[in-house]
Amino acid sequence: MASSPTPAVRTIKTYAVTPRPNPEAPRKVDMSSWDLPILGAHYIQKGLLFKHPPDLSVEQIIERLRNSLEEALFHFYPLSGRLRVVTCEGGGVTCHVEVGTEGEGEGPEFVHAVADGIGIADVVAADGQDLPEFLKEFFPLDLAINYDGCTNPLLAIQLTELIDGFFIGCAFNHTIGDGTSFWHFFNAWAEISRCIAVRKEVVLSRLPVHDKWFIGGYGEPPIKLPHSSPVEFVVRFSPPPLRERMFHFSIESLAKLKARANLECGKGTISTFQALSALMWRCITRARGSPPEQKTSCRLAIQNRARLHPPLSPNYFGNSLYATGTTTTVEDLLNNNLGWAAWLVHEVVSNHTDSAIRDVVHTYMKNPIVYNFSFFDIHSIMMGSSPRFDMYGCDFGWGKALAARSGSANKFDGKVSSYPGWEGGGSIDLEVCLLPQYMSALERDEEFLAVVSPPIKLEVLLGMSNK
Description:
Oligomer: single chain
Helix content: 25-40%
Pfam family, one: Transferase
CATH class of the largest domain: Alpha Beta
Keywords: Transferase
Largest sheet: 6 strands, mixed
GO molecular function, one term: transferase activity
């Protein structure tokens, strides 16, 4: 029998990170009505690519990252705990985070790995190339939560050495927080690292708010899922082979797209992201070649923090979002113009009000469920993540990241994840996941090609990253 190929990534050492004890941290954190539905989701897997700083060894980088992570976990203490799914006596399933005290628990893992023969250029991928398969090996932890009665880690970090740089991959349990909370943590960790580098006292600019939001009228938490065992709501998901690509949209290109959408709909209130979402909805639907009468939806991840009255703190640590959308037929979507589709998207965002959010919460509390990937229709698209997340502000003290990338988690045909463009200013990168035949058709779509921009050249990234 032939021997299996040598893996691209080798683990060198795994460390347990022990946070500085926080006497104010509770021993137990209950899950809200926004956290529980995401029990079936994969971990959030996002990370940053860096050029190797000339004045630091890998050992020094790892030491600084570990020390700053210990301090970060003092403030973001739920991430040092364990998620526990419990079958209750008399029926029902609950979920909570167990936060240990000093000397208890193993703490999150920090993995040091090496990617043999892989360099920065391989990770970035040239224009026209799919994202490399080896990216999934840059992230620790399995994708899905384990429901067999054991506790689940909420965080793990992996530093992967490359020939000429390194990648910091973070696996973050989605049940404990959404993308807003993920990047809040990542930026706080980087801020602490910068303070340590210059021996400055650590005073975080944005402290997390850990008070969970619960709506009144349903008793005290924990919320009980109406199941006799986790087996009843566990739905494992293995997507078919997908092609994944990053597409860049410059400031100038997006300005023209927004102007076009507003001119065509005649309303003047379409945002840049609404216009871009409508473009992707139209172009992907056209690439799929679905029949005219087929229903198709554009769903967007919209956060609730600022839309509630009174609003939640922007530093609220947890999940506070819904995937809501709009639906029409393929015929209407493609026979009408971009402005028509953008107005449908605009209405979804405008109607996501305090009362609408509370109506959804009340409905959920009457029948708590766990979402799974079957909720996303195969004829639709899902716009995830956000170009507003401060990904490139995560400066650990050795310069700006060259690229933000993800692992293999939470991906399916029609998933589109948004990133800020590297050059800032309102530019946007989209990570698009499609079945191979649909991606090939998208790459030939004239409406799409008229808007997408050439990516930032690698030599520009390398030349500007430390300035």
